[in-house]
Amino acid sequence: MDAVATLPWADVWGQDEAVATLQAAAADPAGMTHAWLITGPPGSGRSTLAAAFAAALIAEPGDENGMRQVLAGVHPDLTALRTEGVIISIKDARALVERSYFSPSLGRYRVIIMEDADRMVERTSNVLLKALEEPPERTVWILCAPSEADLLPTIRSRVRVLRLREPDVDDVARLISQRTGVNLAIAEQSARHAQRHIGMAQRLATDDAARARRDDTLRGVLSVRGVGDAVEVAGRVVQAATEDAKTLTAERDELERATLLRTVGIAEGAAVPPAVRSQLSALEDEQKRRATRSLRDGIDRVLTDLQSMFRDVVLLQFGRDTDLINRELESDLRALAAAWSPQRTMTVLDQIAATRRNLEQNVAPTLALESMLVTVASGRIP
Question: Is residue 122 within 8 Å of 89, Cβ to Cβ?
Fold first, then answer.
């Protein structure tokens, strides 16, 4: 198959059935559904598939340049919301709705992509309802979320749902090894620890420090025996997540600031005139929101890792040891499985899930982790 024919879908991996469905939809304007919901776990490729579908919809068949513009996010008929805040704001939702009523300027369709649609509160969801129910003839909405249950029923009733499959660990490992050149053993371990999340698996495979932090965190939690240990380990987890978030955002923040100043003609190191300060302040506010989201995402990844560890303990308690996620800790997990009852392990898992929900409600991360680790130490919810 030639490059033009495969171009929109070249980066979509392991989702042949979904690709076939969307290819057929893009080729049939008469039967086109104008609002879609792509669901799948984090790392399953929802955003990549949404971008490929947008390219197939907007560009004429064979228009390689148009497809590349869409995939790069610079085509005038594509609007994509990739929120980096804790929630999607009503302001952002209204801007999307307003944009959706514009006719396509160059392509066949105007496409609106909303990633992380599960981050909408009810008021924000209500802003979208009419736009999803009665979109203009040549506008297509593509929402992305982990599952249908993450959106309101009123939203779900107005979209066509496309569910992605979860790849196998071995499939993810081969992909990561091919992409990065790391040996297959490291790729397999990373894919397993990331629970098949492709982006996270790639980061673990290529970052020795990230793998070491994960191992240190899990072993630290296993060492918790009382309130003092809980406080110490919670502090270490938050500190590590904070440093990780700063590493991920600092370079980007500085580049954005330099780009803004260069755009308005201010030389490096020169004083910022009052007329530009409001723009700089708005950028800094956005960066702070992104940093908050990055920190919470980092802590959520830690909690996901802890869930995988205590899930392994439950499996061992019921005599299953063939599909452990954290094989490197098997001897410690077997000791814990023998010392605890299954009920105690389930209590800890319930508290980890509750902690994840609490963090989404802006509970202080350190306090939330301390409370969760007290449950690990005692087997009882405080």
Answer: no
Whether residues 179 and 278 share a domain: the answer is no
Choose the final residue of a domain: 142, 163, 184.
163
Q: What confidence tens digit (pLDDT) does each residue in 211-250 have? A: 999 999 999 999 999 999 999 999 998 888 888 777 777 7
Surface-to-core class of residue 245, CB atoms within 10 Å of its CB (0-12 exposed, 13-18 middle, 19+ buried) = buried
Q: How far apart are CA 220 and CA 232, in angstroms?
A: 9
- Same domain flag for 236 and 374: yes
Reported residue count of the chain is: 382
Sequence-separated (6 or more) residues with CB below 8 Å from residue 287: 249, 253, 256
**Residue 186 sits in which domain range?**
169-222
Per DSSP, the three-state class of 143 is strand
The model's pTM is: 0.70
